[in-house]
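STRUCTURE REQUEST FORM
Protein name: Frag1/DRAM/Sfk1
Source organism: Lentinula lateritia
Requested output: structure tokens
Priority: standard
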Amino acid sequence: MAIFSHKRHHWAYVWIPIVGAFIWFGTLWAMLITWLATGRPHYVSMAANQHVPFISDIAADILKPLFITSCTITAISFILDLIIERYLRHSGRLMPNMRTRERVFSSLAILGSLIGGAGLILLSIFDTRRHKTLHDSFLLVFIVGVALSAIFTVVEFRWIYKDFQYAPLLKRSYWMKAIIAGILIILACAFAGTEFKVVNVGGIFEWIIAMGFTFYLLTFYYDLRQSKGVHRGELSADRLNSNNRRYRMRQVA
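Status: completed
Returned output:
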């Protein structure tokens, strides 16, 4: 007997991006509030002229166990979001990949999430106070991995939407991801340019990017929820091909 009824089978996985986003966002606020509540201390890992701590400065102190736990949960959630979405497209519960190129970009997005997730976990373990070089390296791995994953996902969604322009939810998913990912990548470039030269500005950029990553995670809740009430194979490529051809014929007529 199934745990969830057909109309509620999506409950088995839609909670994953919510939990990941909640844990990540809650941890960031817990760290920020702790820093403010303790009188805005100047941590050992901070530069002499630095007044805005990086997330890693706070995370290298007494909240390190919390940060490691949060980063691990967030990384696993991010990876699972992409794997589950790939499975749902393959099983016909979400709009399918109609061409090999879309499946390739979906797989590359998952690979990017694995790289970024590994970087996130490792940067939390090798903190900036005790292992600065390693920490900075894993931070770069995290940023590049997530950025590549986001770019591959947006490109995949763009190509899927070109095949199913009659699907407004898909269009919304594409634009949400494209806008959020685009903003975060631009901010990441700004962060890279100020992290070592204008540390206080760099610190502000890092907090904004980290908070914004929460919203990117939540876009996967919107994606996965679209499988609500959809039977396995209902949105298979073969079944939709005929509908898609009829739609294009109407557009031409």
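Reviewer notes: Helices lie at 15-37, 55-59, 64-90, 100-125, 132-163, 168-194, 199-225, 237-252. The two ends are 48 Å apart (CA to CA).
Form closed.
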